[in-house]
Structures are given as structure tokens and as C-alpha cells.
Amino acid sequence: MVEIIRKASLPRPEEVPPGLRAAATAASGIRVREPRPAGFALLFTSQMQLLEPVVAFLHEHAIQRAHTADTVRTYMEILYDWFDALEQSGIAWRDADAIDLVAYRNRMLEHPSAHTTRPYSVRTINHRVRGVLRFYAWAVRNGWLHDSQLVDRGNDLALARHARGAKRYTSELDRCVFLLRQFESLPRPLASTQARELLAELSTPYDLIARWQLYTGLRVSEALHLTLQDVFKQAASQATYRVIDVMRKGRKAGYVIAPMSLLEETAAYRDRHRSVWQKRAVRKGRKPTRTALFLNRRGSPVKKRQYQRVIQRTGQACGFKATSHLLRATFGCMMLARLERLARQGAAINPLLIVKILMGHEHIDTTDRYLRAVAVDTHALNEVLDSLLSSRQ
What we know:
Elements: E1 3-6, H1 21-28, E2 41-44, H2 52-64, H3 69-89, H4 98-110, H5 122-141, H6 192-201, H7 206-216, H8 220-224, H9 228-232, E3 241-247, E4 253-259, H10 260-283, H11 304-318, H12 324-344, H13 351-359, H14 364-375, H15 378-392
Antiparallel strand pairs: 1-2, 3-4
């Protein structure tokens, strides 16, 4: 089975035996041009042989291309699963062909995830297949492979063609024969009663993070990367809102508009809960975090998966599905509905463009999904269906 070992930092001279202190001192003085940080994932085979092309691929994306940690972790998880599948089947990664990739894809269709015990979604399967194809294309470009059947073979059977009017930014991988047919799903926002119930059941600081998503449309990663400086660098004013600069997905600069009520709640959390948790961390001998806005009770920054699990479990306890993305979708649909109403009343605005900017979408097609979701009100449609069923009974 493929193993993941995290890169450790070099020990200090006083931490090693006396005979090795000279070598440790010399090692600490060596400067590497592009060093891998501590915690960098190194993949090994079951015989503890380093998977050098995988490490080089991750190194390029993490260090040279400076992708975010989430992107690099996603690539690592995809390649770990692929190389583990190859090892269990006794197939060398250099010899993998189209039949092996189809078998890998079909295995995900037939068997649930070992991690979540739930069936794989079509989106997840296609995401992993794209990741494998990108790796092999990179390996050929960089000389790790002379050639591969998985490179420039995705369209051989021409099973997926561009339809007229298709998105111009769709890549070649999106027309690949290895990918499953994927239908676009519309956002399904929470009803106002559901959002209020969810916020009432969440504990601090998760309720405040959820409010930031509901009131500003931030992604999870964007909300968790907020710092005290981001939110409170401006002096208090009598305005009803404040523009907050944020770092968007892909390290793009952006901003959100935060109402003063949300900022007042955030200031109260900073003074009451956050400061107490920081002091507790110091008493326990833990290093406090000074910049991150959202801390847990241990004084550590809130982790993405931790927050997402809390939202999901709280939604289940309330009797409905809730995810962090649904909070963002709720903001998008509600904001778009209000702007559409203002536009119909004569306001000279472009609702779609405003929501695109506020949500940090790269393409207007992504925002258009929220417009269609507003046109087809899911909750109103459910009420109509319930009334029809009750009348039949």
C-alpha cells in the first residue's frame, strides 16, 4: 500500500547526539534554492521507494507555481489513490493505459468510498480522472515519460463533443472520453427559517463563521483566512456597512460588503471568546495564534473540515441538509432575487454582474446558475407539490 510521510524539519544541533552536532550545524547552514516546507507530503511505495515523479509534480505546483495548500492537497489525494490502485493491481505507473484508467473509474462507480462509506459522485469521479490525466501530461512534458497512452488519447472515440453554444473556457479534458456525463445542478438555498434555526443551534465560533458566509457569500477557505487586520483595520464609523478586502480563490484580490451588525457581532466575539481562548492556550503551554480571526476553544485556527462537519451534523440534527456551500448559495440566491426586484423597479443595475463580483466568480456562467435557481424557487415548488399530493389523498 502506498504510504504518505510528511517532510520533517531538520533537528537543531542541541537535539542530536554530540557526535552529530557538527553535521547538524553544517546542515542548518545549507541553503536550498527551492526548499520544501516541513509537512510537505512525500509518497512511498509499500517497499518504501520514493515516488519521485509524484513528489516532483507536487513540488512544482506547491513551490514553483505557488498553488494554494488546498489545491496541492487535492492533487496529492488524487495521486495517492491512483498509485495505490495501481500497486494493488500490480501495474507499474509507466505502463498504465486507457484500460487501466477506465477500470479505475468504473471501480469508483461500483464501490463506495473507503473514507466516507458513501458512493462516489459523478463530479468526484470526473475530478479524479482529470487529475490523473493532468499528471501524465505533465510527466511527458517534463521527461519522466517518453510517451503514454493516457496523453492525447482522451478524444480518440469522440464520444463527447462540444455542443453549440458551449462554454468557451471548457478545456480539452472536459471533452475526454474517460469522463462520465455530468449534468449541471442548480444551487438549492436554505429557506430563511432553516437558516435561522441553523444559526441558533451552532456554537461559537461556528455560528459567526456561518453568518459571514450567509451575509457576505464568502467561500469556506476565504472566511477562515480572515485576519483581525482584515476586519478591524478601519476605524468605527456611522456607516451601515463596510467594504472588507479578502483574498479570493486562486489568490485573486477581491472584496465583500459586510453589514455593521455583522461587524459588531465579530467585535463582541473578539473581545469575549477569542481573547479568553488565546489566554487559555498560553496557560496550557500552546503557542497562541495572533492573526487568524476564527479560533476554536483550544486557541488554534478553525480547520476547514472541522467547520464543515459541524455544519453538516447540525443540519442533520435540525432535520434538513446543510453544508457550508449551501450557506454561500443562499447568499447568492437571496442577493440576486433582491437585485432583480430593484432592476424591475427601474434601478440602473446589472444584478448578475454585481453578484458575480461579490461572490468572486471568475466566469459569469457560474453566477448564471444562481439566476436560474431564483427563477425556479425550490421551496415554493416543494410547497406546490405537497399541496397537490395532499389534494389527491
